[in-house]
Amino acid sequence: MSKNRSDLKTYINYIDKNIKTPNQNPTLGIILCRKDNEFVFEYVPNDNVIDREYELI
After folding, report:
1. Strands 29-35, 38-44: parallel, antiparallel or unpaired by DSSP?
2. How far is CA 47 from CA 10, 12, 16, 26, in A?
3. Which domain holds residue 26?
4. Band of pLDDT at residue 18, cut at 50, 70 and 90
5. DSSP state, 2?
């Protein structure tokens, strides 16, 4: 998923620099996908990347 994360990071940076206004909060990204009967959730904020995995019960 690192390719998805880097693509999303590119979009986040573009939006923050070219679209969002100064009074808006920083852009963040969320990636949700399924891998081996688990849902994988990635929260991609502007500066830090945090990976979380959840198992569907």
Report:
1. antiparallel
2. 12, 10, 12, 10
3. 2-55
4. very high
5. H
